[in-house]
């Protein structure tokens, strides 16, 4: 059964239990926005939602799938919370061609692997959290900004791919296994932290900067920082590892 509650030109609520895959595609832009205040979707197969404009997914959304979950916006995607439960070994993709925003105080949870990707900026605002309890976590965007927020894979790896990665105001990205950051530039400030239970690798085509007690920690492995520009540690910032700390300076313009 599928129940849609509509007001004006938007869906206010969705409740669905389907015998197969669930797909909601607003290809003709019949709706101005997918902006359901509540949604409970259950499918033994996949769950797919696509919107040609902007999405706002509210905290009351619960998605239960037998395999993968994919939610995409051709515009901007705002995720004010939600619980994503793909099937065992499955994954959830939250993607936007424009910006993807996790606003202040929002909480996103998933058991299996979760990826957040933006064509432009991926922003985790103050007090927000993204938590994956079993699978891996991927954060991707031309700019990834984590400001006073937490992004964590409790028992698995974290991958960050960004043109610019910026952590500020005590932000934390933490991996229960390995952490890999691949970026053009990385900047941590105001007590922010990149942390891995095993190896932590930060690779930047440009510079990596730690200021104001920010830090990189590889609890039981190596901490490797590879740059094409410079590595800067200021005002009590540090890099710490259970094994080795390895700065790798590539090219004649690299400085430590």
Please give a structural write-up.
This protein is an all-beta fold. It has no helices and 29 strands. A hairpin with a 2-residue loop joins strand 1 and strand 2. It is elongated.
Features:
single chain; 256 residues; mainly beta; twelve-stranded mixed beta sheet; 29 strands; 0% helix; 61% strand; elongated
Query: Given the helix and strand composition, which structural class is it?
Result: mainly beta
Number of strands: 29
Task: Tell me the series of helices and strands, N- to C-terminal.
Answer: EEEEEEEEEEEEEEEEEEEEEEEEEEEEE
Coarse shape:
elongated
Helix content: under 10%
Give start-end ranges of low-pLDDT stretches. Answer: 27-34
Rg, please? 19 Å
Q: Strand content of the residues, in percent?
A: over 45%
The count of helical stretches stands at 0
Euclidean distance between termini CA atoms:
61 Å
Q: Strand count, sense and closure of the main sheet?
A: 17 strands, parallel
Mean pLDDT: 88
Short description, anyone?
By secondary structure, the protein is mostly beta strands. The protein is built from no helices and 29 strands. It has strands spanning 2-7, 10-17, 22-25, 33-43, 47-51, 55-57, 60-65, 69-73, 77-79, 82-85, 91-96, 100-102, 107-110, 113-118, 121-124, 129-132, 137-147, 150-153, 158-168, 172-175, 179-188, 193-196, 200-204, 208-210, 215-218, 223-227, 231-233, 238-241, 245-249.
């Amino acid at each position: 059964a599928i129940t849609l509650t509509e007001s004006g030109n938007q869906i206010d609520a969705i409740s669905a239990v389907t015998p197969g895959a669930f797909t909601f595609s607003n290809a003709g832009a019949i709706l101005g926005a997918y902006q359901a205040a509540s949604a409970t979707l259950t499918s033994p197969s996949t769950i797919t939602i696509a919107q040609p404009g902007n999405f706002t997914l509210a905290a009351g959304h619960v998605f239960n799938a037998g395999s993968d979950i994919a939610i995409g916006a051709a515009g901007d995607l705002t995720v004010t919370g939600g619980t994503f439960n793909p099937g065992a070994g499955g994954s959830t993709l939250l993607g936007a061609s424009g910006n993807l925003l996790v606003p202040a105080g929002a909480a996103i949870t998933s058991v299996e692997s979760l990826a957040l990707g933006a064509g432009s900026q991926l922003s985790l605002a103050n007090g927000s959290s993204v938590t994956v309890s079993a699978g891996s976590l991927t954060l991707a965007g031309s700019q990834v900004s984590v400001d006073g927020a937490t992004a964590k894979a409790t028992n698995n790896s974290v991958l960050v791919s960004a043109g610019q990665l910026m952590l500020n105001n005590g932000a934390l990205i933490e991996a229960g296994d390995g952490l890999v950051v691949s970026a053009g530039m990385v900047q941590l400030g105001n007590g922010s932290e990149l942390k891995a239970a095993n190896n932590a690798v930060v690779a930047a085509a440009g510079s990596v900067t730690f200021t104001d007690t920010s830090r990189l920690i590889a609890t039981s492995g190596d901490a490797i920082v590879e740059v094409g520009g410079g590595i800067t540690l200021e005002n009590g910032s540090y890099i710490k590892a259970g094994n080795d700390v390895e700065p790798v300076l590539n090219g004649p313009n690299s400085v430590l």
